[in-house]
Specification:
Elements: H1 18-37, E1 66-73, H2 77-81, H3 86-95, E2 105-110, E3 117-123, H4 127-136, H5 138-148, H6 155-159, H7 189-198, E4 204-205, E5 208-209, H8 213-220, H9 229-241, E6 246-249, E7 256-260, E8 265-266, E9 277-281, E10 289-293, E11 306-307, E12 310-311, H10 315-319, E13 322-331, H11 354-362, E14 369-371, E15 378-380
Antiparallel strand pairs: 1-13, 2-3, 3-10, 4-5, 6-13, 7-13, 8-11, 9-10, 11-12, 14-15
Helix pairs in contact: 1-4, 1-7, 4-5, 8-9
């Protein structure tokens, strides 16, 4: 098989013009190349290069290619494991977008009189795409906000006095006034790319090959061990790497909605509860935006639907049943000659700059990088 000519936009969206599409492909390519290179060995040991990770635009995908899909639950696991009850965890997850860290964020609309939920917006679109679109076509950004969030959105609400797009604006900074794209600090495409690349490193520690999700993420420090997503993504990618395969993220690179399971759900009129789950952005195979909403002519609202007998009072109850996914491509099985690393990620103690690296890494629950919201810059995840 040949290389691809360029990376497509997330969800195969048609927002960008030709110039924007080229810029997006360049951003993804640069991010992949940086992830292959890995961190500077003078600052971080045993984490580079990632030679089993490859760029679809520069390296052929062989005929034995297989696509691997990794899925996980959208509800933030860190909230779940540190909560005492379902009510508490649902309330906490609905309280702030900053805790919605599984590459899925949502915002809840309620009837002002009854307080019942009428609509929940869900998004898995990364902020990098929106920053690039804002540079390429500010009018398009405004039009999309007015279409998907509210017709009341104004240019100044999004771009402020400086004319620079503000990802966290009044229409995309809460769980009650809209969710256009991801804003939680670790929910970026850059984080996805870096995590996948770092997870291709096979670890053989003291003669034992690491194979479990938690052993791998604790050793390679490519993400947050308590999340649903990071350990599972890393474990699935590493399983392919252990088969001596080359691995890439499938085009178009992005996080996508996988499914909504509605087993145990019931509506007042007996209608299919999944019929109110509507895709709003992204193509059928790569959906990036959904809304859960009951049409007004049905005579009931989302808040009248029950899940295992409990009325839906929080968007988080729906998130319990949503899965998010990413897709990787693996090929050249059995052909990689890259030797496993025989030590976990370490910070060197002798070279200059090591102290700063140690201070930085010690502040992280896990090792990882993410692309900054602006698609032309990149920083360590903090």
């Amino acid at each position: 098989m040949n290389t691809i000519n360029s990376y497509g936009p997330p969800g195969n969206l048609d927002d960008l013009d030709d110039t924007g599409l080229k810029a997006w492909s360049m951003f993804i390519g640069d991010s992949v190349d940086q992830a292959i290179k890995g961190p500077d060995p003078s600052q971080v040991l045993n984490d580079s290069p990632r030679s089993q990770f490859y760029d679809l635009t520069k390296t052929d995908t062989a005929a034995d290619a297989q696509q691997a899909t990794v899925t996980w639950t959208a509800f933030p696991r860190r909230i779940k494991v540190h909560s005492l009850s379902d009510i508490q965890r649902w309330q906490r997850a609905d309280a702030s977008r900053d805790v919605q860290d599984e590459y899925c964020e949502w915002s809840v609309t309620r009837d002002p009189a009854s307080g019942k939920i009428t609509k929940v917006m869900f998004t898995c679109e990364g902020p990098e795409y929106w920053n690039l679109l804002a540079q390429s076509d500010p009018a398009k950004v405004l039009q999309l906000y007015q279409t998907h969030i509210s017709p009341d959105v104004k240019h100044g609400d999004l771009f402020g006095a400086t004319g620079t797009y503000q990802p966290r604006n009044q229409w995309n900074d809460s769980t009650s006034h809209g969710a256009m794209h991801l804003i939680q600090a670790n929910n970026t495409l850059g984080a996805e790319i870096e995590l996948a690349a770092a997870a291709t490193i096979v670890r053989n520690i003291d003669g034992t090959e690491l194979t479990t999700d938690q052993d791998l993420i604790q050793c390679s420090r490519y993400g947050e061990p308590e999340r649903n997503s990071d350990p599972h993504i890393g474990g699935a990618v590493n399983a392919l790497a252990r088969q001596k395969a080359d691995i890439a993220l499938a085009d178009p690179v992005g996080l996508y909605f996988d499914d909504l399971k509605t087993d145990g759900w019931a509506t007042p009129d007996g209608s299919d509860p999944k019929s109110y789950w509507t895709r709003r952005r992204g193509d059928e195979s790569h959906p990036v935006r959904f809304v859960y909403e009951v049409p007004q002519d049905k005579g009931f609202t989302v808040g009248d639907i029950t899940i295992n007998g409990t009325p839906i009072q929080y968007g988080a109850q729906i998130a319990d049943y949503i899965t998010i996914r990413l897709s990787a491509v693996a090929c050249r099985f059995g052909q990689s000659t890259t030797p496993p690393k025989t030590a976990c990620l370490q910070v060197p103690t002798a070279p200059a700059g090591a102290a700063e690296a140690a201070r930085h890494i010690s502040s992280l629950p896990a090792h990882g990088y993410h692309a900054a919201p602006h698609p032309t810059s990149r920083t360590r995840r903090r």
